[in-house]
Amino acid sequence: MNLPSMTSASTDAPAMHLLTGARGSLSPRIRLSSGALSLSALGNLRSAVLDGTKEVRGAMLSSVLTTCAVFIPLIFLSGIAGAMFYDQAMSVTIVLLTSYIVTILVIPVYYYWWFKGSDGFRPSPLLEKINFDEPIRRWDDRLMEWFFRHRPIAWGLLAVSVIGLVFCFIEMPKTRLPEMTQTDAIMKIDWNEHISVERNTERIRELEEKLAGSVEQMTALVGSQQFILSHSGDQGISEAYVYVNCKDQRTLKMVQDELRGVMENEYPDAVYSFEASGNIFDMVFTQNEASLTARLRPVRTGEVEVGPLRNMLAEIRDVLPGVTVANPPVKTDALFVADPDLLALYDISYSELVSILRNSLNENRLFNIVHGTSTVPVVTGSNAAGLSEILQGTFIEKKSPEGETVRIPVSDLMRQTFVEDLKTLVAGSEDNYYPLDLDLSSKNVKPVMAAVSEAVREDGGFEVGYSGSFFSNSKMIDEMIIIMLVAIILLYLILASQFESLVQPLIILSEIVVDVFVALLVLWIFGVSINLMSMIGLIVITGIVINDSILKIDTINQMRKAGESLERAVIDASSLRVKAIIMTSLTTILAVCPFLSRGSMGADLQYPMSLVIIAGMLVGTLVSLFVVPALYYSIYNGRKKK
């Protein structure tokens, strides 16, 4: 079996975050250079460099701190999230802090040194011909005027985003990790019948014939295996371990559907399951749990009996018509029951019969060989015999009333029957139970739990408890939400101290609601679940999308302090910063675009995060340019009228 390489996953994750950190390090330099260029066009280069640095250093510090405030809480994540992103969070934080120092102390010196011998900044003649500055400003002015006339739309967009955000979190599927591109899989089969290895092999060959032309490779481990280091588990004679490899993921799903149909139609008693072929990442991080496991515990006895359990599963199957409820894997044992009437007739005690049987069955036995669910005794001697022959050849000698010795065959004193029992016993803190694994989407788990609990309550013979990946995934999502809330609180405190206002941070943070809603909507449209990687992406964009709004609000405040009117300050700040905002957003979007590919393990892991960051940055740029200024004007214009 070909196992995917772990290299792409281990290198792509740091690369993604270092690119995000690179965006954070480029953004201050773009803003500083843009400010210096604007001021240098007015005259003295030295004054332009100093004034440009002073003008943006406060906003840049807030941007760096807000981004760090998002990444630092990631350090305290537990489990897989903390293991995957500790180094990345540390590296991005160090890069951003270092970048701020370099931007304030080094870049202005380089700029001054480069242009000090010239009269002023002169754009490249070639690049000047393809300059989009005027068209961008023209469109910015038009859209700003439109949002000024329709300010309720900005508030309406915010309200819709709040409702949509809650709706998406409730309705979207939730998983632990993104769906990986799989072209191969392993099918575990327990025929749940007493069949020989030869018959087991015949059935596997029949499956292979049905799949001819659809699979590129099919390998099976049939019956008990004798590997020194077993990788197929404790496999019995009536079990098989089948590996299928297809040319693409679509073909693999078709093959799995065909196998399900064959098993349900031709072998309804069989128990089967599909799982990934396995790789290093799965071995380290993936938990092989069903979405929901119903733990059925008998009420009256401590033993899980096959008959009542089958009845219980049949009732559950009736209330869950669209869900596969597998039959319990059972084994059939031969049971010999002593006939008390015959024992009394021949004056044979029960202990005497047991003693004779123990001596006969254990005669010349050296040891037992355990093969899966069967035990093979190893005995010495040349006359091999089966159980029936041993019982028929074993006698109990008794004296008749006439004094003659009578030999009574042991087989005549017992009757043979067969009993079914579960192949495996599972126990926990709640005593013995039967684990019923149900493969469900996250949104169907709670209705299924309610239906199963109602069926168990009506039966009265069992109690039920629940476990599964749904609960661990929900715990992980809750932990990520808490991290996001902590990050937002840190952002608010940093912004409040920077702007010396309690309202302006709320205006800036309102952008997060719109951005997160649109990002979740894009994930839903592209069929991606809410998972660890997409949640990390959401946390990341909460820190980086507001940097543009910070720059815009800071510029508006400076213009208002310089004496400009509220409306003029909002419009001029938008016109002045539109180019820097677009440039900083494009640096992130273009840097993340290469991670939109899929097909390898590393690419599959990064895809949800890339999708979230690109969607969040696109809508975040528009919100920073038009919605945030409209909200700012609406709030402060209302205060002015009062």
| Secondary structure tally, helices | 21
| CATH domain fold name of the largest domain | Multidrug efflux transporter AcrB transmembrane fold
- In whole angstroms, the N-to-C terminal distance is 74 Å
Sheet with the most strands, sense and barrel status: 4 strands, antiparallel
- Estimated structural class: alpha+beta
Q: Strand order, main sheet: write it out.
A: 2-3-1-4
Q: Which band does the percent of strand residues land in? A: 5-15%
Question: What does the oligomeric state look like here?
Answer: single chain
Globally, the shape reads elongated
What count of domains describes the coordinates? Answer: 3
Number of DSSP E strands: 14
Mean pLDDT: 79
What is the H level of CATH, i.e. the homologous superfamily of the largest domain? Multidrug efflux transporter AcrB transmembrane domain
Quickly give the CATH architecture of the largest domain: Up-down Bundle
Summary tags:
Multidrug efflux transporter AcrB transmembrane fold; 642 residues; Alpha-Beta Plaits; 3 domains; alpha+beta
Chart the SSEs and their pairings.
Layout: H1 7-40, H2 45-71, H3 79-105, H4 107-115, H5 125-129, H6 133-149, H7 151-171, E1 184-190, H8 197-210, E2 217-222, E3 239-245, H9 249-266, E4 271-276, H10 280-285, E5 292-298, H11 306-319, E6 330-338, H12 340-345, H13 350-361, E7 365-371, E8 374-379, H14 387-392, E9 395-399, E10 405-409, E11 414-422, E12 426-428, E13 431-438, H15 442-459, E14 462-467, H16 469-499, H17 504-525, H18 532-544, H19 546-561, H20 566-592, H21 601-641
Antiparallel strand pairs: 1-3, 1-4, 2-3, 5-13, 5-14, 6-11, 7-8, 9-10, 12-13
